Amino acid sequence: MQGPRVAHWEFPAPAPYPRTSVKSRHPPALRADFKFNLPLLHQDEKASMHRCARLARSTRRVCRGDVGYTHNTTPVAVIFRCCFSTTTRAAEPSSESTSSTQPTPPKSSKSTSTLFLTTLALAAAGATTYQLSSSSSPPSSGLHERIFTPYTITSKTPISPTSTIFTLSPPPSQTSPTSDTQSADPFAPLWPTIWSLTFRQPQLQVARSYTPLPPLSTTPTTPGALRFLIRREHGGEVSTYLSRLSVGSTIDIRGPVVEYAIPPDVSDVVFLAGGTGIAPALQAVRAVLGDGVSGEGDKSTNTTVKILWANRQRSECSGAPLPAPSWWRIWDTTPTSTEPPSPLVEELRGLEARYPGRVEVKYFIDAEGSFIDRRGILDAVKSAGKEEKEGRKLIMVAGPDGFVKHYVGPRVWEGGEEKQGPLGGVVKGLGLGVKGWEVVKL
Ligand SMILES: Cc1cc2nc3c(=O)[nH]c(=O)nc-3n(C[C@H](O)[C@H](O)[C@H](O)COP(=O)(O)OP(=O)(O)OC[C@H]3O[C@@H](n4cnc5c(N)ncnc54)[C@H](O)[C@@H]3O)c2cc1C
């Protein structure tokens, strides 16, 4: 069991928000319990479900969905189902993923030692396993909400010393399309949403959520292939495990889980992204503006997405325009950087070029003393709201806990449910400056 760890700071520059190293929001002390004492959850189901939901913070978080936990060290996949919603004025319902076929969690074992009951239990285990794998119809992507599917790493593109874009392909059985729709993109129905998948570290049986990057419109991909930007956390169980896997290895994945369904009538999005929070920001661009090919999502020609992307180090966004001392200057000019752009920065530039004036990205680098500040947010909001237009305006925030808390206040737990919590932080302080804007904490 691991002992307490000291947070690892890579540089001394102070950030305006606490630098929690990951977007995992459970108290670290509970992690060990999650990994090693999970079977104890059966002893007091009610308390354990609550605890399980709390522990699930780094593993997954949903908007209106559910949490399904599998723990496959026993013959039966033990499923805990914990519902927690994010019900505020900001968060709209996302697609429900409840299933009537959800098996009930196993009760505490009042075990007898008779062979008969053992046999019966094993038979029940087999039946439950069968039910899990067969009765809940898998989505067309081939992924299952509760059963892990092995995806193969087909490429790893380093972005920085700590971040990598992984490309994963589904098992061959799922790449032989049965229809044209499947051959196009089996995840197409999910792109109007912010969604994630759960990865498993098989030895420790721990799982974490990761957010797929939308497919590149410029590069043909295998149907069902997925890309992820994954940052290796110092001492992180799953991210370190993933970082060590080589091309050709498999990763166990399940899902999808919809975090938030972007309202169809959205007119403007200002997205504050911290680190790997750029992944949901890219999903937001895709959700609002479509894929640029099929016309999907691209209902209005003046819908805008402005991304304010903060990173700790320049290496996370190399090639990004250099920070300028004041917001108006970087918004109006694009100072050039001498270093070659990272694939991610190139991707963002590609979106800006494809949607001029509609997609804009501003970069902030902690180590260089540039932070997303009140002025930056207000300018983004004002420039988005220049034109009078119908539709909902969203300020979306994704990143490490401390980042979200600093800008919009923390998410909260109430009665075992995770909710958006009241608006707080910098955005609350903007008062009337953000009147009419809804806030979504991811
Ligand atoms: C919806 C959602 C989507 C996400 N999408 C992405 C994504 O696209 N890309 C991405 O990179 N991440 C994403 N994350 C974060 C990701 O799920 C993980 O939280 C992250 O990869 C870290 O997991 P880990 O297992 O490597 O680290 P953990 O093992 O959870 O450790 C996290 C940190 O805590 C420290 N720590 C561990 N144990 C202790 C202890 N006992 N005491 C003190 N400190 C401790 C570790 O050193 C490490 O720095 C997402 C999270 C959510 C909720």
UniProtKB/TrEMBL annotation:
Source taxon at top rank: Eukaryota
Subcellular location: Membrane
Any GO CC annotation of this UniProt entry: membrane
Gene3D superfamilies the UniProt entry points to: Nucleotide-binding domain of ferredoxin-NADP reductase (FNR) module, Translation factors
Needed cofactors: FAD
Molecular function in Gene Ontology: oxidoreductase activity
Residue stretches making up the FAD-binding FR-type domain: 146-263
Region (Disordered): 1-26, 91-112, 162-183
Signal sequence segment: none
InterPro entries attached to this UniProt entry: CBR-like, Cbr1-like_FAD-bd_dom, FAD-bd_FR_type, FNR_nucleotide-bd, Riboflavin_synthase-like_b-brl
Subcellular location, principal: membrane
Keyword Mitochondrion: no
Recorded family membership: Belongs to the flavoprotein pyridine nucleotide cytochrome reductase family.
Protein name: Mitochondrial peripheral inner membrane protein
Species the sequence originates in: Pseudogymnoascus verrucosus
